[in-house]
Structures are given as C-alpha cells and as structure tokens.
Amino acid sequence: xxxxxxxxxxLGIKGDLYTWVTVVHSTSPVMACISSxxxxxxxxxxxxxxxxxxxxxxxxxxxxxxxxxxxxxxxQAVRTYGYFSNSNILxxxxxxxxxxxxxxxxxxxxxxxxxxxxxxQNVILILPFCFIIYFLLKPKWSLLFILPIILxxxxxxxIPYFSVRFxxxxxxxxxxxxxxxxxxxxxxxxxxxxxxxxxxxxxxxxSVSDSFGVFKLVVEFxxxxxxxxxxxxxxxxxxxxxxxxxFYNKMHLSFYLHASHMxxxxxxxxxxxxxxxxxxxxxxxxxxxxxVCPFVVLLGTYRCIELLADQMMRKTPIIFSALSGGRxxx
Length: 330
What we know:
Elements: H1 2-9, H2 27-40, H3 48-80, H4 101-110, H5 118-125, H6 130-137, H7 143-155, H8 167-179, H9 191-207, H10 214-237, H11 242-249, H12 254-278, H13 287-315, H14 317-323
Helix pairs in contact: 1-2, 1-12, 2-8, 2-10, 3-5, 3-12, 7-8, 9-10, 12-13, 13-14
C-alpha cells in the first residue's frame, strides 16, 4: 500500500498538468522502516547476514540495474528525437542528451533519473553496512545514543549520500526487527491514543520551522515513526478485510510499481496535456480538471502497470522475475 502513496507523491512530476500539494512525504521513511524491519527480524545470528545480503543481489541490485538501464535508454531517446525532445515528458532532468557511459554511471550511482530511484540507491548502498548496524543495535539501549548522533550529523550536513528521509528510519526499523521481531510493543496501545499522539505530532511538526535545526528533525522523526506504527496498527486491525487481502496478493508488484511508475505517469500525463492543448482546454482554468486529473493519472498508472505485469508474468516470466527482483504472485 505504501507504494501507492509513492505514486501519489510523484504525481506532480507533470507540473503543467496540475498543482497538487504533496501530503505524503512519509512514504519513503515508512518504506525504510519496513525494509529494514523485514530484513533484520529474520536474522537470528550474525552469520545469517551474509546469506540475507546475497539474496538482495537478486531482489534489489539486479532489477535496479535493469530499470536504470531501461530508463536511461528511454529518456535519452525521448530527449534526443521527435516531437517530445523539447517537452517535459517523463519529468526529464536537464542533462546532456548524449549516450555516454559517464552519463549512465551518474544515473546509476549519483544522480538517479527517474528521481524516485534515490530510495533504491539508498537501500542498496546501506547493504554493506548491515554487519555494523546489527552489532551496533544489538544492545537494546543503543538506539538512544545512535539516533541522536545521526540526527545531529544530518543537521550539520555531515552524512554524505544517504537521505535524512531514509537513514534514521532504516536504523529504527532495524532496531525494531532485532529486538521485536514479532511486532512492536507500542502496537498494544489503545489505537485512539496513538491517533491523538500522531495528530499532536503533525501539528507540532507544521508549527516548527526548519530554523529549529535538530529539534525539527527530532519532531519530524517522531511524526514519521508514529505514522509507521499507526499504519501497522490499521493493517493489523483490518487484516481480514478484502482491501488488505487484495494488496497482500499484489505484493509481488511492489518493486515493479516503484521502478516503473514515473515512466508511466509521464506518458499518461503528457498524453492528457497534449490532448487538452489540442482541444484548447486550459487545465488551470477548470477546477474540475484540476481535481479529476490526479485521480485519472493515479488509477491509470496503477492499472497500466498491473496489466503490463500480468502480461509479462504469463508470456515472459523470466524477464518479469528479473525486473521484479524474483517476486512472484501469492
């Protein structure tokens, strides 16, 4: 379900299509918590870390390589040739349209394109440090020291490469996985108490400016962790419903959705904009289009990716397996 909110978060890449306030900045922190929690909860001995990292070669690095290669070729072709070479299709960044290895290497390692790949880059780069993370977080009290150090370091811009929307939450999820592999104990709290605390944190986060430095980071961290815990509680509460069951059965599409959604959003958005321009219809001048377009693009993106994935699973299962990191339908 978190992947759907990622898609919502990236609907704005077609800036000429609509203006939408981004209200789902919690997607990456929540996914970082989930990713590390699921990894470390299954580690019962340090020697198991190696086998877990080996499995990540197929589930993360190989599909990431394939998707960055696909995106690079598509972006360069669209940028270089045809009518769309001067448009903002696919949310292209302004970098030289040549087919050099250096540009691809920058795309793969340094400046992700699509920009949503920054999260995958962080998840992959953290893997070599899993041994260190495991031993540092093994003492239950360690989180009280490690998290403040990380947040202070981010406030002083002392941590390269990793995003502040990733590293603190990955560390927190890893700590939860090591010490509470079944479920976080806070989930036993009354759900209304959790909701009230979350609302108070949201108000406080919106009231504190960035000039407050590390205090702002602490408040935001507490807010994102609160959203993560409340989200787990909601899923647990409705785990036997059709909605949760539906998304559980679509878990194999998670990587495929994350990797391809910005390409599809750009294509659908560009078609809509071109059609409206051809009909001399102003998007910003019509409130109905501004309200309806995001939902059309969201549903269209999800459905297109779902159909394409289903076709690939039936006709080219090996290719789909490679692109999805070996994830298969339930």
